[in-house]
Amino acid sequence: MENFNNVFQGSKGIHLILEKLSGRENLSYFASLYKHTLPIEPLLESVGLAAEADKKVSA
User: How crowded is residue 23: how many other Cβ atoms within 10 Å of its Cβ?
Assistant: First the structure.
């Protein structure tokens, strides 16, 4: 997985950051901001995105 600190360097806004990450990486990053989170895999499955989770996010 890409180092999240590198994603922020040189970016101008959250939109650019999110597009550099996959759906799974986005969830992992935002989960890391909180003390208590849900496991990512069951969450992806519950919303029908498990098969697409490793694709890059696009706008």
Answer: 19
- Tally the domains of the chain: 1
Identify the band that residue 1 occupies on the pLDDT scale cut at 50, 70 and 90. very low
Using CA atoms, how far apart are residues 35 and 33, in angstroms rounded to an integer? 7
Q: Is residue 34 situated within a structural domain? A: yes
Sequence-distant (≥ 6) Cβ neighbours of residue 51 within 8 angstroms: none
* Distance in angstroms (rounded) separating the CA atoms of residues 45 and 19: 21
58, part of any domain: no
Task: For residue 11, give the amino acid letter.
Answer: S
Asked if residue 57 is part of any domain, the answer here is no
- Whether residue 24 is contained in a domain is answered as yes
Model-level pTM?
0.67
Contact 22, 57 (CB under 8 A): yes
